[in-house]
Recover the amino acids of this structure.
């Protein structure tokens, strides 16, 4: 299991933290811009409102005289809202309005001022809205000589900014909490899946090779990784099983002739009387050891081919010639054995490959066919073929012998497997294993098909 | 024939020297690469038998150095490495032939005798004649006592190889390598079948056969 300290080391948590930080920074910046912009906007709006009201009152004063002005300002100052109104005589003495005092400059020199107002002392019997605050005002000297001051409370503006900041803080906190939870959740999930893979690896290392990494079916990167790992494990298991099989078979198929060899040599040693039988025994000994050497060579070759020869050994070659040469080499042998051998070889087929190995593979197939083609009195017939079938190059050797039961077809390709239990036919039981290994080296496969009657062995290679 | 054997396995070497001595060849022996190279450059040998893996200096580098100095002595490389690639590297380094361990003595003997022959001028001949059997390499015609024999292209190459080495034993493996260019052991008697066909064409109806089977070794063409 993992510890919390490990969590910080996980990429997911670090990424989450980085993104959260960046997001918060951007949000703060955005808020700054928004609140600055909106405060400017509100200020403009207020200034425009003030200007409009001032202009209207100036008109009233000009057209209808100071009485109308007093009535109008008085009415405005009694309305609820952020409005600040003051109408005074030229000395600054208040006539109507909803504020008591003004900054002295506003009385002496018309202009725009900001000041702390107090609307707590109501004017008139019913009074206006009472409160204190900070306001921006504009003072103007009217045509009638009166002093007009119109303003707006700026606290309202600040309140607006405060709302923005408040919702922003709530938002950011929410985002922080949410992304940390999401990040941790993801991190824990990822860690758990890595933990599963790790657990599988541990079980495999402790010896259980059949263990596999579970696949969730989500088709994500982890499933991809699990699939690759499982494929790799399949291959390893296959190799291990193969290795064990080979060891078992080597024990049997090499120990038996070695024992025979030893017995013969011992007998020859004891048999001092007859020099001819002694010579004979020695000759069989040599023949037996040659057979053993051949088996060893075949095993080594299969092992080397399965390990994959360096790609330098693969060249572009004329496959038609390779196959035709083998057919030509064995034609007299077939005739000698009373069999017919015909070819169905396509012209000019080229393929990337190893001439020696492909040649030997075809030789092995033909030698097998020669061994098994004839059944009783039926005339044996072998067909060596090379065809291009779409994306595949097919090298085939077919006979009309007894064939191989379907259940045994996969098995005969394995090392040392010979269906003929009595082992009366010569051979190491490695021929088809080598063919299969050569086919795999060329990214293809060996297939044994029913030739009805007989076997059709096909080396199926992908076209380059 | 004077032979230099460069081989670090003393037991295998002494067996080989004795066997070569029995058939009348004189063999000098070096047990490591440096000594072997010094001996090879100091004296003329008919054939060098060089093991590939040697102490102090490996076999391929000896052959490469000799070839670089213009020494064209025939070289047979012995090796436990039998892969196609290994053979190609061996021959590319300047070896004339390559034999994989373990080998039969008859195989080694046949090969060095053919190799030694190779350095003689007979190699360049355009036609061969053995006891009335004539093979013309240019017109690709074969006749015996004036009578034309029709041969398939492969049979021609087979006979050509045998006649170039007339009087010498050639093994089945040598035939498979030189005539068919295959370096593996077939399990069936494929070479014997081809030889019996060839024999049918050149010896049939003649009192004295030219193509002889050498028991336990191979074939030979001689009068």
């Amino acid at each position: 299991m993992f510890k919390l300290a490990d969590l910080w080391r996980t990429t997911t948590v670090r990424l989450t933290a980085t993104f959260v930080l960046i997001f918060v920074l951007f949000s703060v910046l955005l808020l700054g811009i928004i609140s600055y912009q909106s405060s400017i906007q509100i200020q403009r709006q207020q200034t425009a409102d003030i200007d409009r009201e001032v202009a209207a009152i100036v008109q009233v004063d000009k057209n209808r005289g100071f009485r109308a002005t007093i009535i109008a300002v008085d009415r405005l100052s009694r309305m609820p809202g952020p409005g600040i109104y003051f109408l005074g005589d030229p000395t600054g003495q208040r006539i109507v309005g909803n504020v008591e005092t003004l900054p002295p400059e506003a009385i002496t020199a018309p202009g725009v001022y900001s000041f702390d107002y107090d609307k707590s002392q109501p004017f008139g019997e019913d009074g206006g809205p009472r409160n204190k605050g900070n306001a921006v005002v504009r003072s103007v000297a009217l045509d009638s000589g009166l002093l007009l001051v119109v303003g707006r409370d700026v606290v309202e503006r600040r309140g607006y900014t405060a709302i923005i900041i408040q919702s922003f803080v709530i938002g950011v906190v929410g985002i922080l909490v949410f992304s940390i939870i999401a990040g941790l959740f993801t991190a824990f999930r990822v860690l758990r899946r890595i933990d599963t893979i790790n657990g599988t690896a541990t079980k495999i290392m402790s010896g259980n090779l059949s263990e596999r990494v579970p696949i969730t079916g989500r088709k994500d990167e982890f499933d991809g990784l699990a699939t690759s790992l499982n494929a790799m494990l399949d291959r390893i298991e296959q190799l291990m099983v193969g290795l064990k099989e080979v060891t078992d078979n080597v024990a049997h198929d090499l120990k038996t002739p070695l024992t025979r060899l030893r017995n013969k040599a011992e007998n020859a040693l004891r048999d001092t009387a007859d020099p001819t039988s002694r010579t004979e025994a020695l000759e069989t000994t040599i023949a037996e050891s040659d057979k053993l050497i051949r088996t060893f060579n075949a095993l080594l070759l299969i092992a080397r081919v399965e390990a994959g020869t360096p790609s330098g050994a693969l060249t572009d070659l004329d496959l038609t010639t390779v196959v035709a040469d083998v057919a030509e080499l064995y034609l007299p042998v077939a005739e000698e054995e009373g069999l017919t051998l015909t070819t169905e070889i396509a012209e000019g087929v080229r393929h990337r490959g190893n001439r020696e190995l492909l040649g030997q593979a075809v030789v092995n197939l033909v030698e097998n066919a020669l061994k098994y083609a004839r059944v009783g009195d039926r005339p044996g017939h072998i067909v060596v073929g090379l065809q291009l079938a779409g994306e595949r190059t097919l090298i085939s050797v077919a006979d009309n012998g007894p064939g191989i039961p379907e259940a045994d077809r996969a098995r005969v390709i394995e090392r040392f497997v010979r269906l003929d239990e009595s082992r009366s036919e010569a051979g190491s039981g490695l021929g088809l294993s080598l063919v299969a290994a050569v086919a795999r080296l060329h990214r293809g496969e060996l297939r044994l098909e029913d030739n009805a009657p007989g076997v059709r062995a096909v080396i199926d290679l992908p076209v380059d | 024939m004077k032979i230099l054997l460069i081989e670090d396995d003393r037991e295998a070497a002494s067996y080989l020297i004795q066997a070569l001595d029995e058939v009348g060849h004189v063999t000098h022996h070096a047990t490591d690469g440096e000594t072997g190279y010094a001996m090879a450059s100091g004296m003329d040998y008919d054939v060098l038998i060089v093991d590939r893996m040697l102490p102090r200096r490996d076999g391929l580098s000896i052959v490469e150095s000799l070839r670089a100095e213009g020494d064209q002595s025939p070289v047979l490389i012995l090796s436990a490495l039998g892969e196609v690639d290994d053979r190609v590297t061996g021959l590319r380094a300047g070896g004339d032939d390559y034999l994989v361990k373990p080998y039969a003595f008859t195989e080694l003997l046949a090969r060095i005798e053919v190799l030694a022959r190779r350095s003689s001028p007979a190699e360049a001949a355009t036609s061969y004649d053995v006891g009335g059997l004539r093979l013309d390499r240019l017109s690709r015609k074969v006749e015996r006592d004036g009578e034309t024999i029709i041969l398939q292209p492969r049979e021609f190459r087979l006979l050509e190889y045998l006649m170039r080495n007339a009087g010498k034993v050639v093994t089945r493996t040598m035939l498979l390598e030189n005539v068919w260019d295959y370096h593996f052991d077939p399990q069936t008697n494929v070479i014997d079948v081809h030889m019996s066909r060839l024999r049918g064409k050149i010896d049939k109806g003649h009192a004295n056969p030219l193509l002889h089977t050498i028991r336990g070794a191979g074939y030979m063409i001689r009068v």
